[in-house]
Amino acid sequence: MTGDYKPFTYQQSNGVFEGMDVDLGQSLAKAMGVEAQFIKTSWPGLMNDFLEKCDIAMGGVSITLDRLKKAGFAESHMLDGKSAIARCTDTAKFQSLEMIDQPATRAIVNPGGTNERFARANFKRAKLILHNDNVSIFEQIVQGKADIMVTDSSETLWQSKQHTELCAINPDKPLQFAEKAFMLPRGDVPFKAWVDAWMHMQKETGAYQQVFNKWLK
Questions:
Q1: Model pTM greater than 0.85?
Q2: What is the pLDDT of residues 176-204, one digit of tens each?
Q3: pLDDT digits (tens, 9 = 90+) for 21-77
Q4: I need a labelling partner for 23 at 20 to 30 A (CA). Which of 29, 36, 115, 128 fits?
Q5: What stretches pass through the bilayer (predicted)?
Q6: Distance between CA 87 and CA 31 in Å, rounded?
Q7: What are the chain's domains?
């Protein structure tokens, strides 16, 4: 996991990981009778690090056709399309993709993941600002150094709670469909079946909802 994507994964200054997917990862490991070991990666390096070092990739990973060329996925456990977040005083200006994609708009994005791919595919006139630090990226909007960011709806809700100056824009009507799931080794049928069964039980017993409510409500 990247350790830079609240509320799913965040690495503290002491090296300890926390977040929704950290809790789920520890629960999954306990159910398997093993100890979870979290490996720090980056969004550009996610696939290579997963293939070379890890058994599973977590931390708000979205299912994409590109990733499916090299890896498999467990059954999706969350619907989470792209939504915009901006200063609350500016939300009326950014109610649609057409309204966002204007020459005067400064759209900030973290490189290497689905956010950058979405921005490059949909913003042809807006100015794109690449910002490598996903932890401080929303402060750039607060400080007026950028106008808007399009990211997963769950993150816009989380960040709007952390920054009172920012508002999620129509998170219940995302600009694009997406699902989150755990990335698994391609073709490992027994492992996928085990993870899927575990998640099904987590949802049916309410354990998943408890973790979801802890981090996203």
A1: no
A2: 888 999 999 999 999 999 999 999 999 99
A3: 999 999 999 999 999 999 999 999 999 999 999 999 999 999 999 999 999 999 999
A4: 115
A5: none
A6: 42
A7: 4-78+178-216 (3.40.190.10), 81-169 (3.40.190.10)
What residue has token string 């990335």?
A: 183
Q: Which residue shows structure tokens 């069964």? A: 197
3 state SS for the chain:
CCCEECCCEEECCCCCEECHHHHHHHHHHHHHCCCCCCCCCCCCCHHHHHHHHCCCECCCCECCHHHHCCCEECCCCEECCEEEEEEHHHHHHCCCHHHHCCCCCEEEECCCCHHHHHHHHHCCCCEEEECCCCCCHHHHHHCCCCCEEEEEHHHHHHHHHHCCCEEEECCCCCCECCEECCEECCCCHHHHHHHHHHHHHHHHHCHHHHHHHHHHC
